[in-house]
Amino acid sequence: MTVLATSVDRAAPDFARKREGMLELVAQLDEILADVRAGGGERYLQRHRDRGKLLPRERIELLLDRDSAFLELSPFAAYDTQFKTGASAITGIGVVEGVECVITASEATVKGGTQNPYTFRKAMRAFEAARVNRLPLISLTESGGADLPTQADVFVPGGEGFRRQTQLSQAGVPNISVVFGNATAGGAYNPGMADYTIFIKERSKVFLGGPPLVKMATGEESGDEELGGAEMHARVSGLGDYLALDEPDAIRLCRQVVRRLNWRKHGPGASVLPVREPAHDPDELAGIASIDLKEPFDMREVIARIVDGSDYDEFKPAYGTSLTTGWAAIHGFPVGIVANVQGVIFSEEAQKATQFIQLTNQLDVPLLFLHNVTGYMVGREYEQRGIIKHGAQMINAVSNSAVPHISMICGGSYGAGNYGMSGDAYEPRFTFAWPNAKIAVMGGAQLAGVLSIVARAAAESRGQEFDADADAQMRAGVEQMIESQSLALSMSGRVFDDGIIDPRDSRTVLGLALSAVHGAEIRGAQGYGVFRM
């Protein structure tokens, strides 16, 4: 039998303690998300409604198929920055007329939907999700353009958005722009680059330069409607493909456009397996991993609660036992799993992972990486046994693997272990983190200790007395800095993942992500670089 057993005892004090700690973190995240979903606050929400407009999230809700899921991406973007968390935009994957689409919406109640550097990062992540997974892109636009005080950080890289939009079209992935208000200056190029445009009568205003700018530049007197109104673009310039009477009508027309796309997934949909619920309760995931990353946990307990039937066919179970590899399915989609059982990766684990990654590419099966890794093992014995070249083999395999990767960080993800487990730099299709996750070059105590050793050696080489008090202060400061920078919220705020999720939602989130990646053809690598032996 390949059904995983479990040693989790819900009545055990350790389980209750871990669950309580995890749920406290989840509650903190829920508070932040509630603030994100409140947009600019009640005053600005009411002003938006008073203008007869739907709120951005209401537009998305009307656009989506009834009772279908919306996988929101990068909701914590810009956390702990000068900008409001959420980065003045909403992005995610939802089902419209039975078609999975990437949806972006300007959060017009936050500074008029102006775009700051984190809005740009968030948008690029959404464009990439549309491209690599071959998902139609729908942009619900109402933006005041660039956030002018930070235009120096937005203007030059901002052109990449238009490039990516046109590349989607060239790749045969439709992009649809629905303009609910202003789309001025650079923002006018969003509908300008779109395959399909929908404007709203007496609402949409699309122009490179508004009346004041035109007056200053040319001396010409022009009104909004004649310069960039919806009817003008629909009847005169030809920029408007569809002219809606109001916002609900615009959403109806958008759904109509998607319905006429006759869109089909390119992934191997016919091979999807029957869906079976796990044999072990996913609710128990809240009590398996500790918020104290020094406490180990067996990742097989996680696997048992996210895969279909808790059925996991482990590959090489007796070799390289601090890392597990094996075959399973999630919501009917076959996956290969690479997961850290205990944090350190030794030579044997690296070699096992390398072989397994090659096998998944041979069979055209997506890979799921479950992170709780402290890094590759260091020390004289391990260096002599070849940990560098074995780690390089694993990173080579990850780098050149062509099947979709999905990463879920369930604990620590430190050092080159993050690279070998397909961290963000290795362009996994999606990356999600649990609330207890941490990402850094190493733990704060270790990093501070290394700096202390280097400082002590430097003082000795100069014949100076080592200042122990100053060293203690330095170590405390470094530990605190590294701790704050490595937290899940800090990483997610920088858009180094696609969101922090409640561990109990892991199976659902992974199922939605796997469904999305099947929009594109899944084909493994046909070759690799040189593996140093």
The residue-averaged pLDDT reads 92
Rg for CA atoms: 25 Å
Give me the oligomer status: single chain
Give the amount of beta strand, in percent. 15-25%
Q: Which of globular, elongated, flat, extended, rod-shaped describes the shape?
A: globular
**Helical run tally:** 19
In terms of structural class, how would the helical and strand content be classed? alpha/beta
Query: How helical, in percent, are the residues?
Result: 40-55%
Calculate the terminal CA-CA distance, rounded to whole Å: 36 Å
Main sheet: strands, sense, barrel: 8 strands, mixed
Which parts are unreliable, with pLDDT below 50 for 5 consecutive residues or more?
A: none
Kindly state the number of beta strands. Answer: 17
Overview of this structure, please?
With 533 residues, this protein is α/β, with parallel strands linked by helices. The chain has helices at residues 13-37, 42-50, 56-63, 117-133, 151-170, 189-193, 211-218, 224-228, 230-237, 247-259, 299-303, 347-363, 380-385, 387-400, 415-420, 444-461, 468-486, 488-493, 506-517; strands at residues 70-73, 89-96, 99-106, 137-143, 175-184, 196-200, 205-207, 242-244, 313-315, 323-330, 333-340, 344-345, 367-373, 375-376, 405-414, 430-433, 438-440. Strands 1, 2, 3, 4, 5, 6, 7 and 8 form an 8-stranded mixed β-sheet that branches. Strands 9, 10, 11, 13, 15, 16 and 17 form a 7-stranded mixed β-sheet that branches. Strand 15, helix 15 and strand 16 form a beta-alpha-beta unit. Helix 4 (117-133) runs parallel beside helix 5 (151-170) and helix 16 runs antiparallel to helix 17.
